[in-house]
Amino acid sequence: MSAFDDRGRAQEAKFARDQDVLFRITARRNRLLGEWAAARMGLTPEETDAYAKAVVQADFEEAGDEDVIRKLAGDLTAANVEISDAEIRAALNDMTAEARRQFIDSEN
């Protein structure tokens, strides 16, 4: 029974680690998205930092990426930046890849 318990604990630890990694990558991706959108809106460095943090916080509203996409679309539109939903989703995909790369680099 001990081997079975050890295996269960190992699987739980792996799941917890995987969830932590996913959370860190998603938070980094959202920060990168915030910086990308801030550049499109012409924000100052201080405003960019605050905006990137706000985008990270926006992701806690609901599960999935739709809350972040809605925030970016609304803010960019309010700033008179012409952008499509497809462009935002493409940036989301690009920033996901970049966040993963940065995470892997930081682990080495």
Topology, please?
Layout: H1 2-41, H2 45-58, H3 66-78, H4 85-107
Which segments are poorly predicted (pLDDT under 50) over 5 or more consecutive residues? none
Name the helix and strand elements from N-terminus to C-terminus, one letter apiece.
HHHH
Task: Report the mean per-residue pLDDT as an integer.
Answer: 92
Percent helix among the residues?
over 70%
Major pleated sheet = none
Integer tally of domains? 1
CATH-assigned fold name? Major Prion Protein
**Helix/strand class:** mainly alpha
Distance between the termini: 37 Å
From the alpha carbons, calculate the radius of gyration and give it in angstroms: 17 Å
Describe the protein's architecture and organization.
The protein has one domain: Domain of unknown function DUF1476 (Major Prion Protein, Orthogonal Bundle), CATH 1.10.790.20. Helices cover 83% and strands 0% of the residues. It is built from 4 helices and no strands. The chain has helices at 2-41, 45-58, 66-78, 85-107.
Outline:
This protein is mainly α and 108 residues long. The chain contains four helices and no strands. It has helices spanning 2-41, 45-58, 66-78, 85-107.
Q: What brief labels describe this structure?
A:
mainly alpha; single chain
